[in-house]
Amino acid sequence: MARIHGQRIWLDGRMIPWDEARVHVLTHTLHYGLGVFEGIRCYRTDDGRSAVFRLPEHVRRLFESAHINLMSIPFSRETVTQAVGDALRENGLAEGYIRPLAFIGDGVMGLNPADNPVRVAVIAWAWGKYLGEEGMEVGIRCRVSSFTRHHVNAKMAKGKTCGDYVNSILAKREALLDGYDEAILLDTQGLVAEASGENIFTVSGGVLRTPPLHTVLGGITRATVIELARDEGIPVHESTITRDELYVADEVFLTGTAAEVTPIREIDRRTIGQGSRGPVTKALQAAFFDAVTGREGKYERWLTYL
């Protein structure tokens, strides 16, 4: 994969040259993983403008994640929101991926960060289809991971916390080493939770199902797809899903800011449905991209134009 590079990064209230956005090796988050972040996308709309998708919801979740983790972000939501647009403009991006990050800086060491400063960065770069252009059309191959998703009392699942993603990295690398594209994790009860960085949906008999928000992150794309489906007249149930229910579903797909809406054609060497993108997944993909590109005016409330 190509190294990410751009022109400028917003760090602690200032826009600075990309290669000068450095931190000390004693940065607390580097050692202990306590930090929070977001993934946001900006799309070029059909009228040629650029619009960030569901920006207020992403900024709100960033601040909620910090609150859950007893971190106080030293900037207002309005300032971070402005920094997202500034990062896109400063890097000449008509569309791209944006990563706000709040982390604990250097100072004392040990598990208690004490008065170490909470620092904030906003980075923007060009990023294509996370799971590949081909995967968006024909579907990807997944395996159920040997790693279990976080328990709600071992790690609070509503915060998008940096250190949580060690669990995701282990699952993702295991899947890739075994020749798959992505991992699906089960919770401590053996029920389907989510993928390494995406929420999961099944389609059976025309009914859309997704795990409830117990052990999974409340994905903003997940919420978008649920609303789109209901608007299309597709029944949606937030209910538990077993591993074997994945195998016999008519369709399975993943949702996430990076993954968007990505179909799954195979899980654990079992073909899902017809082994290709199904009609419900295709319809929801189309509805999603109509929304993010401004083609469907009823969802314009989700767009923040630059």
Structural key phrases:
306 residues; alpha+beta; nine-stranded mixed sheet; eight-stranded antiparallel sheet; 8 helices; 17 strands
What does this entry show, briefly?
By secondary structure, the chain is an alpha+beta fold.
Instruction: Count all strands and give the number.
Output: 17
**What's the helix count?**
8
Shape: globular
Mean pLDDT: 95
Which residue ranges are poorly predicted, with pLDDT under 50 across at least 5 consecutive positions?
A: none
Helices and strands, in order, run as EEHEEEHHEEHEHEEEEHEHEEEHE
Beta percentage is: 25-35%
Helix content: 25-40%
Q: What is the CA-atom radius of gyration, in angstroms?
A: 19 Å
Structural class: alpha+beta
**What is the straight-line distance between the termini?**
29 Å
The main β sheet shows up as:
9 strands, mixed
Structure overview:
The protein is of the alpha+beta class and 306 residues long. Helices cover 27% and strands 28% of the residues. It contains eight helices and 17 strands. It has helices at 28-32, 55-68, 77-90, 133-138, 165-177, 220-231, 243-248, 279-292, and strands at 8-11, 14-17, 35-37, 40-44, 50-53, 96-104, 118-125, 140-148, 182-186, 192-195, 199-204, 207-210, 236-238, 251-256, 260-267, 270-271, 303-305. The strands form two sheets. Strands 8, 9, 10, 11, 12, 13, 14, 15 and 16 form a nine-stranded mixed sheet that branches. Strands 1, 2, 3, 4, 5, 6, 7 and 17 form an eight-stranded antiparallel sheet that branches. The longest helix has 14 residues, at 55-68. The chain starts with 7 loop residues before the first strand and ends with a strand. The mean pLDDT is 95.
